Amino acid sequence: MADGECLPAMDLMRSEPMQLARVIIPMESAHRAISYLGELGLFQFKDLNKDKSPFQRTYATQIKRCGEMARKIRFFRDQMNKAGVTSTKLTYGSVMTLDDLEAKLGELEAELLEMNANSEKLQHAYNELVEYRLVLKKMGEVFNSAQKKATIQHREQEHRRVEGSIDSPLLLEQEMTTDSSKQVKLGYVSGLVPRDKSIAFERILFRATRGNVFLKQDPVGEPVVDPVSGQKVEKNVFIVFHSGERAKSKVLKICDAFGANRYPFTDDAGKQHQMITEVNGKLAELKTTIDVGQHHLVSVLQSISLQFEQWKTMVKKEKSIYHTLNMLSFDVTKKCLVAEGWCPVFATNQIQKTLMQASTDSNSQIGAIFEILHTKEAPPTYFCTNKFTASFQEIVNAYGVAKYQEANPGVYTIVTFPFLFAVMFGDWGHGICLFLATLILILREKTYSSQKLGDIMEMAFGGRYVIIMMSIFSIYTGVIYNECFSVPFEIFGPSAYACRDPSCRDATTIGLIKVRETYPFGVDPIWHGTRSELPFLNSLKMKMSILLGVAQMNLGIILSYFNATFFRNEIDIWYQFVPQMIFLNSLFGYLSLLIIVKWCTGSKADLYHVMIYMFLSPMDDLDDNQLFLGQKYLQLLLLFLALIAVPWMLIPKPFLLKKQHEERHRGEAYVPLGALDDNLGPDSTPRSHGGHEEFEFSEVLVHQLIHTIEFVLGSVSNTASYLRLWALSLAHSELSKVFYEKVLILAWGYNSVVILIIGIIVFIFATVGVLLVMESLSAFLHALRLHWVEFQNKFYQGDGYRFYPFSFALMGDDEE
């Protein structure tokens, strides 16, 4: 089911009410009913055949058929990719049955395999003829060169014999008159050998024949397609002259060992010319045949591509239908299939209409029966989201899926997550850059959703709505901080302060007087660049971080109250929510109050001193650190309440749970005599009479002790953890300031166009790479931690499991 197709109004606070249902479907309409439910996508089937292996189930044969068809479709896809043919999303042709599709796919596969086999044979023959032509040309040149040299040498000898020169050899005449029948005839073997093996080939030939061969090699200029491997290989044409059959057999074995392709050759020049002519003719014929075959193959693949997506979707749907049918069980008559599963309550009428439509379309005389089952099993969690809220919900689900109908942090995460990110990333210049980059992803989401992006781009595209919210909030906090690439702007008017006289030209607050109304929104721009800028902004952001942290932790505890109220758990309200609220606000709620009072009154009280001596010396007078009347007595009261809240959380709850357990199971130990007699078997125990689990008081007490210690210590550590908002905001601001002043302004000061251009390029790359990518990722991870640990641990259990309905829309693109 696609996002946003739910009928009820979207409510993310609690998961949709779910129900366990049983569906009894007649055999003749089972396939169509499951198919229609897959189109609806609102029913999660339970596996009622867990004790059976996949091969023992009813529809194992059909799944095997679908798997074989999926293999053929993958074969078609590989062939299309190899030929450069792309499939179209449009579907052509009429819808066929599964049997017709199976026959069609079988015919097409056989045709493609036959064409591939013929093409391979033709290509093999073509490559062999190409190599043969090279041998004929190269070796023909070798023989022609040798014959020319022999003719010239013979003429020189004849000339010397006629002149009777004293330098002529004494046995020349005898050599010339020797009987030609007594001359030794040399045999030869020719072919091609890979160039990287040619040296070893020559060496082995020399050693095996003890140097009684003559090897001549000539490198081929361009790589040659090897007939055996089909890969382009650099080769040498060779010819080996040998004497005798024994030497010939050794040469042939060595050629085979080195993968040398041997081809026949003749030393007759006339026959060589004739053979080259024949080879060229055959090559032309084979080339024409191969081109025609390739054209036919492409035409077949193009016809397949028109229906490829339709066939692929059909096979995937059929396979998923039979997988689902295998999860159903037969009734006792073997005429109906029984299904059990979860569905939202709002989908009851839709499911019943779908089952009725399936029975009608199947011409079934008996309709399917839909009934609600009562169970104590925990239902799955289902939130009806759209493309905007889905990414925020995934942030929560990555921590843990919400327990059925517990309060969902995803509602608040939509606002709090981008806001806490923006507190750390506050710069409206960087925010605008991030906004524009994400806006492109949103405007072109239809294009990108149908494409395969890289891993990083896929993540960015999936969280595009989270990122654009983060950028919007970053612009807002950047305006508050009054920073645009670390540069302040007088957006809402001039500064409230001015120099008392011309002598205060240097950047300092000394000598400044207030001449106008307070700057209306955000930080006054005159603070930037002063010596007191860092102490002022540090104090502001640190206190702001504590206020935000205490507010969010209070929200988490308040949500635990709504959880306890919803599940009617009075014990959690009075012995968990109340003492936690008292403890947290007695300490850090009071600190937040002091921060606000100090801001409003302009007091110079030391809040560190106030909080430390609130514990060390609660009875001492506050003196200069007193912010309001009665502060000392209020501190004593809050300290007393904080001390009382710890045993309040720890002690009563385990005893109350034990009492509640005893009252719930009171009387269950008494059973009828007949039932008691049945239980008097060898395996009967007193525990089995009660029919309930034992209450382990020690385990509950230890669990409550751990929970109390975790909350008390966590209140301190979690509050301190929110100071990361201040630290990362400061780091982002200072880095931005360094890049602006030490790169851009420094390059501007050289009065050189080249240096200025280099400075601008470095500034752009540093801003994008460090501030927009690395800093945004860092702020994202810290905001994630604040939500998962500091916020959600106050109320969120996250031990549920997701609702995975049987839906064709949720089928992945991954092939099995």
UniProtKB/TrEMBL annotation:
<dbReference type="GO" id="GO:0007035">
    <property type="term" value="P:vacuolar acidification"/>
</dbReference>
<feature type="transmembrane region" description="Helical">
    <location>
        <begin position="633"/>
        <end position="651"/>
    </location>
</feature>
<feature type="transmembrane region" description="Helical">
    <location>
        <begin position="743"/>
        <end position="774"/>
    </location>
</feature>
<dbReference type="InterPro" id="IPR002490">
    <property type="entry name" value="V-ATPase_116kDa_su"/>
</dbReference>
<comment type="similarity">
    <text>Belongs to the V-ATPase 116 kDa subunit family.</text>
</comment>
<dbReference type="InterPro" id="IPR026028">
    <property type="entry name" value="V-type_ATPase_116kDa_su_euka"/>
</dbReference>
<keyword id="KW-0813">Transport</keyword>
<feature type="transmembrane region" description="Helical">
    <location>
        <begin position="464"/>
        <end position="481"/>
    </location>
</feature>
<dbReference type="GO" id="GO:0046961">
    <property type="term" value="F:proton-transporting ATPase activity, rotational mechanism"/>
</dbReference>
<feature type="transmembrane region" description="Helical">
    <location>
        <begin position="544"/>
        <end position="562"/>
    </location>
</feature>
<keyword id="KW-0406">Ion transport</keyword>
<keyword id="KW-0812">Transmembrane</keyword>
<feature type="transmembrane region" description="Helical">
    <location>
        <begin position="419"/>
        <end position="443"/>
    </location>
</feature>
<keyword id="KW-1133">Transmembrane helix</keyword>
<keyword id="KW-0375">Hydrogen ion transport</keyword>
<feature type="coiled-coil region">
    <location>
        <begin position="98"/>
        <end position="125"/>
    </location>
</feature>
<dbReference type="Pfam" id="PF01496">
    <property type="entry name" value="V_ATPase_I"/>
</dbReference>
<protein>
    <recommendedName>
        <fullName>V-type proton ATPase subunit a</fullName>
    </recommendedName>
</protein>
<feature type="transmembrane region" description="Helical">
    <location>
        <begin position="574"/>
        <end position="597"/>
    </location>
</feature>
<comment type="function">
    <text>Essential component of the vacuolar proton pump (V-ATPase), a multimeric enzyme that catalyzes the translocation of protons across the membranes. Required for assembly and activity of the V-ATPase.</text>
</comment>
<dbReference type="GO" id="GO:0000220">
    <property type="term" value="C:vacuolar proton-transporting V-type ATPase, V0 domain"/>
</dbReference>
<dbReference type="GO" id="GO:0051117">
    <property type="term" value="F:ATPase binding"/>
</dbReference>
<keyword id="KW-0472">Membrane</keyword>
<keyword id="KW-0175">Coiled coil</keyword>
